[in-house]
Amino acid sequence: MGRFISRLCKRALPFFKLMKKKCLFEWTSEADAAFEDLKRYLMSLPVMAGCWTEEFKVYLLRGTLPEKEEDIERIVREATAYCGQDGELYLRRPNDVSQRCISEEQGRELLADIHVGGCRRHSSSCTLVGKVFRSGFYWPTALNDATELVRSCEACQFHAKQIHQPAQGV
Ligand SMILES: [Zn+2]
């Protein structure tokens, strides 16, 4: 995982360059290229064992049902939201766009990267999740993870405190 993070950092460099510029979100072609690169890198990562995608992949790609009776019904019902393709799991979207399902760990890396990368004023949790989903990735705990990330980010907390500080006597 350490190697993963450091490689991500290098790839995210153009995003950090953006931070030094004005806060207005500016998506340069350089950042775009880096983001595409980052996406390709995440796409190429094997999904770890024990990942939430595993049971759906086993069912959709190999046609194997879970052993436990109570799991079978759930998997068959929930699996309709996904499709398996080239050994990977995708979440079906109504507009024919599908999102590659990644592990929660990979998702959190992606969030952290986008959070500090986009703008000096860190992206809110909703913006973050929107960006991640639009970029073509999905994992079930994305919103929770984004909320948690914003809550545990020192810069974000500092900023929130400034806003809520009562105005000094005028
Ligand atoms: Zn932040």
List the helices and strands and how they pair.
Blueprint: H1 2-11, H2 13-20, H3 29-44, H4 54-62, H5 69-78, E1 82-85, E2 88-91, E3 99-101, H6 104-117, H7 125-134, E4 137-138, H8 142-152, H9 154-164
Parallel strand pairs: 3-4
Antiparallel strand pairs: 1-2, 2-3
The structure holds zinc ion (ZN).
Zinc ion (ZN) binds next to helix 9.
Description:
By secondary structure, the protein is α+β, with helices and mostly antiparallel strands. The protein folds into two domains: 7-45 and 103-162, no CATH class; 48-101, no CATH class. 58% of the residues lie in helices and 8% in strands. The protein contains nine helices and four strands. The protein has a four-stranded mixed sheet with strand order 1-2-3-4. The longest helix has 16 residues, at 29-44. It is globular and about 55 Å long. The N and C termini lie far apart (52 Å). Bound molecules: zinc ion (ZN). The site of zinc ion has 5 residues, from helix 9. Residues 115, 122, 153, 155-156 line the site of zinc ion.
